[in-house]
Design goal:
Blueprint lengths: L12 H9 L3 E5 L3 H13 L3 E5 L10 H4 L9 E4 L8 E4 L1 H12 L7 H31 L5 H21 L12 H11 L12 H11 L2 H7 L4 H4 L6 H8 L5
Parallel strand pairs: 1-2
Antiparallel strand pairs: 1-3, 3-4
Helix pairs in contact: 2-4, 2-7, 2-9, 5-6, 5-7, 6-8
Length: about 250
Amino acid sequence: MPRAAKRETGQPARRAARASRERPIELYYWPTPNGWKISIMLEECGLPYVVRPLDISKGEQFSPHFLAISPNNRMPAIVDPAGPGGRAISVFESGAILQYLGRKTGKFYPRDERARVAVEEWLFWQVGGLGPMAGQAVHFRRYAPDAIAYAIARYTDEVNRLYGVMNTRLAGRDYLAGRYSIADMACVGWVRLAQRQGQDLGEFPHLKRWFEAVRARPAVKRAFAIRIEAASAVDMNDPQVRAVLFGQRAR
């Protein structure tokens, strides 16, 4: 499903013309919070890109082609034909992709060291905390074959704690690192699934205000609007799907 990002208004004409001649970035994607991070950044930066749907329910992430790009067999990943030195480069892991695109474009990832440290603190807070804990909460609340009360409470409570951390952080600022950045892009998709994680955003007014502001951005709307028809047809009760998603060991 190809998709080309629209350029932000006000860009110099010569930059837009140069971008139009570039081969688009390939985004290996499935509609999950990790996938949304990168589609948001690509849209925010106005970079041309195409979506390469990767049906993780069918095991497409284990194909030799994709493993050469993402050895951890996880999406998202990108291939940028116009990488450093004009040579193609592939990047896997969502946090690394956001940093790469930030350096490439000079957008949403400040060069000033103090400002960059603040962005990186909250980016790594997400990739090491919010994402894994929210993912486990969703898994045990929705997909585990048996309802394990301890696991449900453990991860639901930890996500609640993390939401409280965000809420406190946002009490005196508009965005996590002051200005809108890749840290906000990394977090917004996970907060979008708050209800699945057993959370009520009404309990976190500063977080709710932030979420509504980020979600209202045109680029974020475009990123969330990407549709992969196969994703809506996945049957999470299918034993083969569950084996692919939840039953993998070392290969």
